[in-house]
What we know:
Blueprint (H helix, E strand, L loop, with lengths): L3 E12 L2 E7 L2 E3 L3 E5 L6 H8 L7 E6 L2 E2 L8 E4 L11 H12 L3 H10 L15 H13 L5 E5 L7 H17 L3 E6 L2 H4 L5 E6 L2 E7 H7 L3 E6 L2 H12 L11 E3 L6 H10 L4 E7 L3 H10 L12
Parallel strand pairs: 4-9, 4-10, 7-8, 8-9
Antiparallel strand pairs: 1-2, 1-3, 1-5, 5-6, 10-11, 12-13, 12-14
Amino acid sequence: MEEYVLRTYGLSKKFGNKIAxxxxxxxxxxxxxYGFIGPNGAGKTTAMKVILGLMHxxxxxxxxxxxxxxxxxxxxxGSLIESxxxxxxxxxxxxxKRFSIICGGTEADIQFYLRxxxxxxxxxxxVGAFSLGMKQRLGIAVALLGNPEFLILDxxxxxxxxxxxxxxxxxxxxxxxEKGTTFFISSHLLGELEKIATVYGIINCGLLVEEITSQxxxxxxxxxxxxxxxxxxxxxxxLKMNFGLENIPADDNYLYIPADPAVSSRINEILxxxxxxxxxxxxxxxxxxxxxxxxxxxxxxGMGVGQYA
Length: 309
């Protein structure tokens, strides 16, 4: 039986007559790195704040670790929402020490997480003089105090340079593999989530468009053979029969046969022998970006749905 860390049921948040989060049902299993992907203003941050109890929902319920509206479960959750709230006049160590009083964490934990995020040797440098990347890494270290089982990170790589992005990715993957930490990560940068996410939740205009595993996404975006030919309906029937396919996607110009590109010559041979002329034949691979844009573009942006972060 699957164990869920987070589930939401009809979660909604309104600001006046504008809907920021609209009837969202999230399903995050233990061990997932769940990528919450959507454009700026899609409702990602608002949904996370409601889940963390920083905002009251207009409607719906939040289930954490199998229990509805369980305030005690918050102790098992770490978070970094928007920019980290740090003591800028203190050092990295002093920040960790202060937050450990609130969040829990031993001296050994403080040293371990500072070392893990690469801040164990910054000495007496005050956080106010840190780069954005250093502040973000310290914010993650603070969120890890108390050894939470579930970590919610809102745009953790936003504004970072490529090296900073890699540092954050490495931290997430280490904690997931070595500590078993479950992650819920929002981003509008698909290229970054693509490197680490095991599950995606696509959100736009406050609506959850789809939840899809990385394996299923890979299948849907796999290479296919693109064919332009005469007698399209006849060609579809012939190819279904020869390749044991239930469905062959098509548009006004092309058939997209879900088969290894290596069989392109066989497809051409079968069609030609059946009296169907082939005018174009090639390989088509759907990019992840195109898939996500297509799914998000399928929404009607109207209906009073507001553009909130």
